[in-house]
Write a structure and sequence with these properties.
The strands form two sheets. This protein has a seven-stranded mixed beta sheet with strand order 1-4-5-9-8-7-6, sandwiched between helices. Strands 2-3 form a two-stranded antiparallel sheet. The chain has eleven helices and nine strands. The N and C termini lie far apart (about 90 Å). The chain folds into two domains: about 1-90; about 110-335, BirA Bifunctional Protein, domain 2, CATH 3.30.930.10. By secondary structure, the protein is an alpha+beta fold. The structure holds 3,4-dihydroxyphenylalanine (DAH). 3,4-dihydroxyphenylalanine binds near residues 169, 250, 305 and 307.
Length: about 350
C-alpha cells in the first residue's frame, strides 16, 4: 500500500507539472482526488490494514493527499496570475489617445437666465418655476383679465381646450405663489411662454423672467431701486434706467422700463435705433385687485411686479438680429454666440 501511495503521488506530481491550464489542473484533481479518483481508492484499502498500523498509515495517506493538493493550488495560482496578466493586456483601454473633443456651450438664452436669476438671488429673491400648460383662470382671470377684457388681444393665445392654454406669460406664477405662501414674498420665475406670433422680433415660443415682491409698504420706489441695481449688474455700472407710463391689467400704476443703450452709452446708435434707450421689461405696483384675488389683504400688503424679456436681453447682449434663430437649434448659431 505504501508503494501505491508513492506511485500515485509521483504520477500526480508529473501530471501537475505537465498541466498547461487551470482546466487541466481541474481534470487532474478529479482524476486523482475525486470521488472515484485513484488516490481515493487507496483510502478504501484502509479497511484491510491492521488496527495497530492504522494511525501511521492514515497519517501517510493524509500527507500524500496534502502534497498533491498543495501542488495543485500552487500551480493554479501561477496560472491565474498569467491569465490575469493576459486579460489585462487584452482588455486595456488607451486613455491617452489624443482625439480632438468638441466641447458644448451654454445657449445665449440659458446664459441670460442664469445671469439674471443669480443677480436676483443675490438680492434675496427665490427662483421658482411653474407649469407651461396653464388654466385660463390663472393665466388671465386671477391676473385681473376677465373673459371679455381687451387686454386678451395683446396676447394671441394658443388654446389647448376652452379653459386650458399654453401660458402667454409667466405672470400666473404670481397667483400660484400668493395662493400658496404668505408675505413677505420675493420670487423670480424664469420660463418659456407662448404666443401666436412669428417675425424677426417675435417667436411663438420665448422666455420671460417674472418677478414679484409682496410685503408691507412696498412702493414704486422699491421697483425703481431694484431694477436699477439689476440693470447695472447685467449691462454695466453706467447703465441708467427710465420708467415710461404704460398699462397692464395686473399692475397699477404700470410702467415700461428702458435701460440706456449698452452699445452707445445713450448717444444713439443702430442697436437702440438712435434713441439711446432699450426697452427690456414691463412692471408696476401690483393691482390691489390681484392681491385680493389671491387671498392677500391689499389694505395690509402691497407689491411690485415685473416681467422681463429674456430673448430681447440675449439679442441685445449678443447682438443677435433675429429672435427665431435662437430656437432653430442650428449648431452654427450656437458656435457663433457661445
Ligand atoms: N406679463 C406681461 C407680458 O407678458 C409682462 C409684465 C408686465 C409682467 C408687468 C408683470 C408686470 O409682472 O408687472 O406682457
Amino acid at each position: 500500500m505504501l508503494d501505491l501511495i508513492d506511485i500515485i503521488v509521483a504520477k500526480s506530481i508529473a501530471l501537475i507539472e505537465d498541466a498547461k491550464t487551470s482546466a487541466d489542473l481541474n481534470d487532474i484533481r478529479v482524476q486523482v482526488l475525486g470521488k472515484n479518483g485513484e488516490y481515493t481508492s487507496v483510502l478504501r484499502g484502509m479497511k484491510d490494514v491492521k488496527p495497530e498500523d492504522k494511525p501511521r498509515m492514515g497519517k501517510l495517506i493524509n500527507e500524500g493527499r496534502e502534497k498533491i493538493e498543495n501542488l495543485i493550488a500552487k500551480r493554479e495560482a501561477e496560472f491565474k496570475a498569467v491569465e490575469m496578466a493576459l486579460r489585462l493586456k487584452k482588455e486595456a483601454v488607451d486613455v491617452t489617445l489624443d482625439t480632438p473633443q468638441e466641447v458644448g456651450s451654454v445657449h445665449p438664452i440659458t446664459s441670460v437666465i442664469q445671469e439674471v436669476v443669480d443677480i436676483f438671488v443675490g438680492l434675496g429673491f427665490t427662483a421658482v418655476e411653474g407649469p407651461e400648460i396653464e388654466s385660463d383662470y390663472f393665466n388671465f382671470q386671477l391676473m385681473n383679465i376677465p373673459p371679455d377684457h381687451p387686454a386678451r388681444d395683446m396676447q394671441d393665445t394658443f388654446y389647448v381646450s376652452e379653459s386650458t392654454l399654453l401660458r402667454t406669460h409667466t405672470s400666473p406664477m404670481q397667483a400660484h405663489t400668493m395662493l400658496s405662501q404668505k408675505p413677505p414674498i420675493r420670487i423670480v420665475v424664469p420660463g418659456k411662454v407662448y404666443r401666436a406670433d412669428d417675425d424677426a422680433t417675435h417667436s411663438p415660443i420665448f422666455n420671460q423672467i417674472e418677478g414679484l415682491v409682496v410685503d408691507k409698504d412696498i412702493s414704486l420706489a422699491h421697483l425703481k431701486g431694484t431694477l436699477d441695481m439689476v440693470a447695472k449688474a447685467l449691462f454695466n455700472a453706467d447703465t441708467k434706467t427710465r420708467f415710461r407710463p404704460s398699462y397692464f391689467p395686473f399692475t397699477e400704476p404700470s410702467v415700461e422700463v428702458d435701460v440706456s443703450c449698452c452699445m452707445c452709452g445713450g448717444k444713439g446708435c443702430r442697436l437702440c435705433k438712435g434713441t439711446g434707450w432699450l426697452e427690456i421689461l414691463g412692471a408696476g405696483v401690483v393691482n390691489p385687485a390681484v392681491l385680493s384675488n389671491c387671498g392677500i389683504d391689499p389694505n395690509e400688503y402691497s407689491g411690485i411686479a415685473f416681467g422681463l424679456g429674456v430673448d430681447r436681453i440675449a439679442m441685445i447682449k449678443y447682438g443677435i438680429p433675429d429672435i427665431r434663430s435662437m430656437y432653430e437649434n442650428d449648431v452654427r448659431f450656437l458656435r457663433k454666440y457661445k
